Amino acid sequence: MQAVFPESDWCAVAPLSRIDWLPLDPAVVPQAVLGWLAEQGSLTRRLRAEAGDLSLICLQQGVMDDEPELWQRQVLLLKSGRPWVWGLTQAPLSTLTHYPQLATQGEQPLGDWLFGVAGATREELVWADLVADPALRQVLAAWLLPAPEVLWARRSRLVLPGAECVITEVFLPDAPLYAGGEEKE
Questions:
Q1: Sign of the torsion angle spanned by Cα atoms 37, 78, 110, 93
Q2: Phi and psi dihedrals of 108, rounded to 5?
Q3: How far is Cα of residue 111 from the mean position of the Cα atoms in its chain?
Q4: Which fold has domain 22-178?
Q5: Phi/psi of residue 170, each to 5°?
């Protein structure tokens, strides 16, 4: 029987520690995982293609107290009520001046809007294993999710005409890229 996750149990993730992002390398990343990490299009679209309903919980959104020129949004993407992806979007306030709709998406995935902006391009995708990050370990425990052997994440910069944002996506233990028991080699 699958656990039920009441929305009140979700909490935002504390700032992550310094991350050494690496270029995607098929010799290091298992093929089943690489397909998810290297997805060039909208991850939202890819998640919708999987069985089950896609929903989003916005955990935090706004200007950062310690970085007043930085806006960020943290979300959980869930499939059939199970958390699959934690997403973090960060943008300079100048991006919101050009694209105020970025901050008005509510419970809608940003991918629906971002990948519809004419001229938007994604720069190189990079990856990391974030299993040792203290903030993520703490929040996984708070969310009652198992501590995996590997916690795959990807990051990229999305360039919009006259603006930019950085998107970090962490694949949580219920995400399908773990289904084959794939681990880092």
A1: negative
A2: -100, 140
A3: 11
A4: Chorismate lyase (3.40.1410)
A5: -110, 125
Q: How far apart are CA 1 and CA 22, in angstroms?
A: 37
Please, are residues 121 and 100 in contact by the beta-carbon 8 Å criterion?
no
Q: Amino acid letter at 39?
A: E
Whether residue 177 contacts residue 152, with contact meaning beta carbons closer than 8 Å, is answered with: yes
For 68-122, how does the pLDDT look when each residue is reduced to its tens digit (9 = 90+)?
899 999 999 999 999 999 999 999 999 999 999 989 988 889 888 888 888 888 9
Which residue is it, tokens 């009441």? 6
Contact between residue 74 and residue 144 where contact means Cβ atoms under 8 Å apart: no
What are the domain boundaries of the chain?
22-178
Q: Are 67 and 140 in contact (CB under 8 A)?
A: no
pTM more than 0.85: yes
